[in-house]
Structure to design on (986 residues):
């Protein structure tokens, strides 16, 4: 334990050198700027900066990369809140409440709770990483296909929190999302499914394309069709740019719960960043004392619905460092590129890294702390600037949103076919909005469907066709038990006459 | 579950359309799933298993939707836009902008196509001064373009080498 | 409107900050049709590094797109890079079997052959906690209860899979009795094995090297015909299993390259195989260099296509 502390102090000594602070700042700045553009993620940015490793010493380069990683995560939430366009799947849940808050003049508090939540979650997760990395890594390995599938079932069950006014229409949206997710080649058998012979469909339909179509394009179309005549020329009323005491009170527990959900997920190899944000959102939705604020209830946007998922997102990013540093297993595209950066210095991530290169590892961990602080310092003053962006008149605001949306979609694979598909999905989104079909379940179905199918089939193959495997293995069984609680406790309580805050 | 919505005839036709579309999608997916192999080795389930489940889900939700529409319309739904006349002219401008952008981007380059999109969308939302929008659009697009092509090296269609 | 201008000013500041970073040109795009951390990934990234060392490119972007034997990555590569002389697709025997099995709309005929680079041999590994000590032990388990021996490797019909089926046949176990679990990338295979979710795993030696060195995994056998120099690891043949699995890797260029562009890219790749970076990687990963280019390479890929197809049919996989 003393060793850990000593190493960490030395790490801080390294990371706090002015030149390293400068690299951290450049990384955060670059990451935030990149994250704001949909379709361009931290993985690509870090990859582009990889050649820097030829000129800069390892600690500085890794410190900068961590800055980019965190910065891009945060930048993604900015577009979700301001433009209703999730730049990556992990910031989808942020759009639900965040954009609703922005529409009601509360963009400032939404951005602030995202920034501070990211900081809090990142810092706590880094502490956990410092203290428990090897322990957590061993636990993470216990997650095989059966455990993953149980998690997916839990995610599916809790999805009802985003279904909106009608269970039936919510389920319809979810089924459509699952159907979209099936398009493309089956990962396990290599059979092409529902591709209609269109080569563009062979590699499936990209998440960014559907998200941008359903959120940004359909919102612009809907607004121009049905709301362009009314009211003042700017969409968003300006409110306070800062969080009130009430906002703080509601954000704190959400940050902590988000961290508690996100960190373990990040440390599970191949866990992904989406499920923790879903679970965090639904947790907040179930526990809130202000159910009427939630956008799914037609409310003005609930701050805990931004605070939780954003914290979970960032904690997941930090959690991903656990298998990376201790086992050498990359759990995300960005983590994989960090491994490449290590290899450029002839360092091999894995159990030996902690022994052979302790100063570097602890320097990196220290830089995670510093990156978090840097990001907060950089972004809090920007909150006001971003929020002011919404006072741009409607014509130019929506024109700008559409330009950004098409940039993201087009730059993925330079295909005009994708742009047309984006427009068609946008039109479908307008019809869905018109008749109150929620759009979020489409995206959730699209993400969870293929993941859960793959895990289900692999889990069954490992168990030789025994469906009870999900109840025989301790971790899977625990998760399944939790799922049943989530499903049946509300029904039981209602029957006993206990009224829950929500009412279906 | 008693508040059967009051909808216009046009709204009703759309509701029928949606229900039939979902039901039809379920049938099409079911037919597709029947063609996939069912062989799954030790897993016991093959590449057709999940598609069949999803086809059934689509079919069931589609059928219930159809029943709801036929018996008075979607439940828990008030058509707030029943009397509103849609601004189709604005929608047409926006559509034109997106389609022109998709068709022209590989020919006139990223910057011009995106600026054109900006101008069309702003026009659709009622902006009168297209030349001013063209300036705003260019000012927005150029830095992004330079960021992509020069810093990130993501190649975008260009009219002149690396500048526009 | 002043507010708009001030926002634009803020955006301008960001852009200025970005412009301060070095302006990069001549970027190589490498498509890796597997998840990060696997064998294709290592080959692609080292080749990219070597190409930068030759000065042909200043920097490289790597894109990972896993699934269906690499054909998902192939489709994306072919769609996104038409006529781009600075794009490379990492591929190999796994891609060829993927194409045979999936019969995708976009096949290797749609992209431009550049060069075969290396040949690699697989290893059969178990995790360190496993009671199985050698190939004999594993085969005994397999004969006792074939379904209970879960093999992890690349996608269905890959060389990994074909090799495992061949081992089963050698032991008298029918191919449909082999319980093979396909994963999308090397990283997933590693965590499934280390977590004890599968019995044994197979993969390229380069992928498994660091886990073997750190003691997390135990290598049971290498699939080469003879022991490799400098490597104290028994072959399958030595342990009474009459099977060899070799896995070659190469690169393809974008669709629609002109003959000049193809030649230039081929020369650049060949020059890269002469660099220190590449030579060091060959040694470190025990890759056997096997460079061929041009028509010879196209013919080789065609031959592999027929050979692997026959093996898949024999194994009852196709």
């Amino acid at each position: 334990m003393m060793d850990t502390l000593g190493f960490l102090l030395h790490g801080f000594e390294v990371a706090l050198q002015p030149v390293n602070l400068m690299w951290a700042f450049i990384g955060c700045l670059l990451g935030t700027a990149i994250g704001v553009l949909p379709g361009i993620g931290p993985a690509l940015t870090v990859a582009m900066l990889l050649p820097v490793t030829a000129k800069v010493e390892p600690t500085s380069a890794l410190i900068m990369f961590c800055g980019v990683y965190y910065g891009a995560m945060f930048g993604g939430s900015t577009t979700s809140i301001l433009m209703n366009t999730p730049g990556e799947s992990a910031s989808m849940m942020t759009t639900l409440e965040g954009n609703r808050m922005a529409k009601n003049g509360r963009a400032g508090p939404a951005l602030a709770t995202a920034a501070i939540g990211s900081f809090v979650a990142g810092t706590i997760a880094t502490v956990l990483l410092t203290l428990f990395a090897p322990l957590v890594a061993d636990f993470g390995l216990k997650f095989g296909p059966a455990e993953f599938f149980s998690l997916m079932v839990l995610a599916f069950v809790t999805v009802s929190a985003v279904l909106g006014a009608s269970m039936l229409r919510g389920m319809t949206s979810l089924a459509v999302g699952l159907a979209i997710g099936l398009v493309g080649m089956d990962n396990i058998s290599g059979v092409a499914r529902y591709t209609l012979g269109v080569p563009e469909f062979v590699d499936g339909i990209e998440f960014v394309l559907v998200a941008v179509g359903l959120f940004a394009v359909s919102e612009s179309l809907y607004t121009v069709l049905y709301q362009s005549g009314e009211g003042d020329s700017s969409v968003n009323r300006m409110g306070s740019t800062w969080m009130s005491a009430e906002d703080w009170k509601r954000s704190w527990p959400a940050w902590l719960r988000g961290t508690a959900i996100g960190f373990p997920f990040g440390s599970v190899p191949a866990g992904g960043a989406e499920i923790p944000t879903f679970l965090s959102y639904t947790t907040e939705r179930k526990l809130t004392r202000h159910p009427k604020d939630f956008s799914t209830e037609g409310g003005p946007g609930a701050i805990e619905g931004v605070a939780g998922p954003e914290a979970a997102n960032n904690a997941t990013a930090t959690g991903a460092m656990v298998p990376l540093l201790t086992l050498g297993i990359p759990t995300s595209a960005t983590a994989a590129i960090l491994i490449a950066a290590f290899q450029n210095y002839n360092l091999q991530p894995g159990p030996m890294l902690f022994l052979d290169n302790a100063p570097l590892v602890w320097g990196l961990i220290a830089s995670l702390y510093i990156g978090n602080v840097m990001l907060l310092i950089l972004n809090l003053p920007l909150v006001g600037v971003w929020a002011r962006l919404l006072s741009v008149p409607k014509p130019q605001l929506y024109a700008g949103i559409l330009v950004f949306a098409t940039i993201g979609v087009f730059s993925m694979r330079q295909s005009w076919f994708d742009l047309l598909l984006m427009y068609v999905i946008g039109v479908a989104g307008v019809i869905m909005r018109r008749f109150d079909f929620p759009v979020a379940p489409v995206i959730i179905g699209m993400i969870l469907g293929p993941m859960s199918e793959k895990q289900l089939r692999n889990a069954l193959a490992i168990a030789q066709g025994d469906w009870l495997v999900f109840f025989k293995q301790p971790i899977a069984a625990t998760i399944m038990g939790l799922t049943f609680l989530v499903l049946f406790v509300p029904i039981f309580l209602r029957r006993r006459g206990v009224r829950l805050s929500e009412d279906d | 579950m008693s508040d059967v919505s009051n909808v216009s005839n046009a709204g009703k036709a759309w509701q029928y359309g949606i229900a039939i579309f979902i039901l039809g999608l379920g049938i099409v997916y079911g037919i597709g799933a029947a063609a996939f192999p069912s062989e799954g080795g030790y897993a016991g389930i093959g590449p057709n298993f999940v598609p069949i489940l999803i086809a059934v889900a689509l079919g069931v939700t589609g059928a219930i939707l159809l029943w709801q529409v036929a018996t008075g319309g979607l439940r828990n739904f008030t058509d707030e836009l029943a009397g509103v006349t849609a601004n189709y002219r604005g929608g047409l401008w926006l559509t034109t902008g997106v389609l022109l952008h998709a068709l022209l981007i590989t020919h006139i380059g990223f910057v011009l196509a995106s600026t054109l999109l900006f101008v069309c969308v702003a026009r659709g939302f009622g902006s009168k001064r297209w030349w001013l929008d063209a300036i705003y659009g260019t000012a927005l697009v150029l830095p992004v373009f330079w960021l992509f092509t020069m810093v990130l090296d993501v190649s975008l269609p260009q009219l002149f080498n690396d500048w526009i | 409107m002043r507010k708009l201008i001030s926002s634009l000013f803020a955006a301008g500041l960001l852009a200025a900050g970005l412009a301060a970073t070095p302006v990069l040109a001549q970027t190589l795009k490498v498509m890796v049709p597997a998840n990060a951390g696997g064998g294709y990934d290592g080959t692609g990234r080292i080749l990219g590094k070597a190409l930068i060392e030759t000065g042909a490119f200043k920097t490289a972007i790597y894109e990972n797109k896993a699934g269906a034997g690499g054909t998902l990555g192939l489709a994306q590569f072919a769609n996104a890079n038409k006529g781009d002389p600075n794009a490379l697709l990492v591929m190999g025997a796994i891609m060829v079997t993927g194409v045979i099995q999936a019969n995708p709309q976009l096949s290797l005929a749609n992209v431009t052959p550049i060069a075969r680079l290396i040949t690699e041999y697989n290893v059969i590994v178990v995790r360190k906690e496993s009671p199985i000590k050698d190939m004999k032990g594993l085969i005994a388990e397999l004969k006792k209860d074939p379904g209970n021996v879960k093999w992890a490797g690349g996608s269905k019909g890959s060389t990994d899979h074909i090799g495992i089926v061949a081992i089963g046949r050698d032991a008298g176990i029918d191919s449909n009795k082999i319980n093979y679990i396909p994963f999308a990338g090397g990283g997933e295979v590693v965590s499934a094995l280390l977590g004890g979710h599968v019995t044994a795993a197979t993969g390229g030696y380069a992928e498994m090297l660091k886990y073997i060195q750190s003691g997390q995994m135990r290598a049971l056998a290498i699939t080469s015909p003879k022991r490799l120099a400098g490597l104290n690891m028994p072959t399958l043949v030595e342990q009474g299993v009459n099977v060899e699995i070799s896995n070659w890797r190469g690169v393809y260029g974008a669709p629609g390259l002109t003959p000049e562009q193809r030649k230039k890219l081929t020369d650049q790749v060949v020059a890269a195989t002469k660099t220190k970076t590449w030579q060091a990687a060959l040694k470190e990963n025990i890759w056997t260099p096997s460079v061929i280019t041009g028509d010879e390479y196209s013919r080789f890929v065609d031959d592999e296509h027929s050979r692997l197809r026959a093996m898949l049919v024999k194994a009852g996989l196709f």
User: Anything to note?
Assistant: Chain B is about 65% helix and 0% strand. The two ends of chain B are 58 Å apart (CA to CA). Chain B touches chain C at residues 41-42, 136, 139-140, 143, 146-147, 150-151, 153, 155 (CB under 8 Å). Chain B has two domains: 9-70, 88-152.
